[in-house]
Amino acid sequence: MSFYITTAISYVNGAPHLGHAYEAIATDVIARHMRQRGEDVFFLTGTDEHGEPVADAARAQGVEPLELADINAARFKALMPQLEVSNDFFIRTTDEQHELKVQEVLQKVHDNGYTYKGLYEGWYCPRCADFKVENEILDGNLCPIHEIPLTREQEENWFFRLSAFQEALEQLFDEHPDFVMPARPFNEARSFIGQGLQDVSLSRARLKWGITVPWDPDHVFYVWFDALLNYYTALSYARPGEDLTDRYWPASYHVIGKDILKFHTIFWPAILMAAGIALPHHVYVHGFLLGADGRKMSKSLGNVLEPFEVMDAYGTDALRFYLLRDVAFGGDGAVGIDAVRKRYEAELANEYGNLASRTIAMLIRYRDGVVPTAETDRALQADFDGLADEVATLLNRAELSQALELIWQRVRRLNRYVEERAPWQLARDPANAATLDETLASLADGVRALSVLLHPYMPASTEQLLDALGARSTDWSGAEFAEQGNGATVAALEPLFPKRA
Ligand code: MSP
After folding, report:
1. Residues in the chain with pLDDT < 70?
2. Is pTM, for the whole model, over 0.90?
3. Cα 112 from Cα 404, distance rounded (Å)
4. Is 258 a known active-site residue?
5. Which residue has a Cα nearest atom 22 of ligand 1?
């Protein structure tokens, strides 16, 4: 089955920060998990390069918008492999093929009668590149997101008849309660629709930095429509000489932050309906990373956690693990380097890392580095029953932290098993050989199965460990606890999560 998953595409008016890394990592966990399950996965990320914020930032730096876009898009693109993010393509909305496809799709919206020319006047946030509706504006005419003064703007625009999709959107939400997940953003979007949809502007007359409206070349498309369409356009040119649209569209999952809910759950399905294109299956909305003090991260508050600071100190896998473990995915959460250190030491080094080292060391010491082919411990196995299915079910709903918690309970279970069985005592008396075989086979296979389950979260260290266990495969079929030890030859392993200064 094809599985198409996307992140939001990032603005290129600045460099990437931890919020972007978080979304890419979370999406990567789902993509990798689906690949394990044998799905035909396509994973897209990229950059959103047109519109006012980028034009303004470029102007402030005295460069052309494309120069600024080139610099920052390169940073975002380079960040992905550094985060071990396995995207299949990186789209830039300044790609010529994207621009042509946007024109083609929106021309269809126009031809289908869903556009008209009108005068738009409203309160506008230049940072959001968005007009604000009255009930979301903060006291003192401030942007609810950026808390900067809004300006009163008027211009002749092309409008998109969003109001024509009132009933269709109500029906979409009523018939597909999992179109938006989790429940809270679903309800928020549903109630926004319930208040009655107003038409929205589709073009800008004043701005030049955008994609030209083909039927009225004095206008460029409003950046949000250009940006949203990336999810669809990318498939038409991501593989040179091949169009992947039929293979992967409609998207299975759009992963986004809560600040861009309205665009993805209201504008996006409406514009697709207007163009006669099938709708994505799910939009998953995650929360915000906050500074360690619980306030929104900002340079001026000095509470910013830099992804590179964490990766340099603890490694990429630790960053990935930390973000999905410490912040319940879907909610907001504070992050800071002290909390990273605590999780690293308490869970990665002392629990998983130590379990791995002990298991391998005991196999080498007591069984010449060969996993006994003995039957594994039935009672222990029972504590793993159904785990792989539960994890898969949770990950179908992007419940990344809950799935990780279930896996981690079993990491702890195996550590307790080591203490209960005390193999070092069993090894003293040859009469215990069969029990020791059972114990070591169980530990080896438990660690192996857990590493398969943890692979999407921590690809590099789980691969290293699976290699050392002589069981390379990360396929989902290996996520179950085996009935018997596999007879593999294990190799010594350097600590996966060494003590850090
Ligand atoms: N360009 C738009 C998205 C267009 S998608 C068709 C945009 N860009 S962004 O760079 O501002 O944000 C990109 C993604 O990162 C969004 O999903 C946003 O919610 C997420 N994050 C940005 N800061 C964040 C945190 N501090 N925490 C978690 N994610 C946040 O919006």
Report:
1. 128-130, 133, 206
2. yes
3. 47
4. no
5. 19
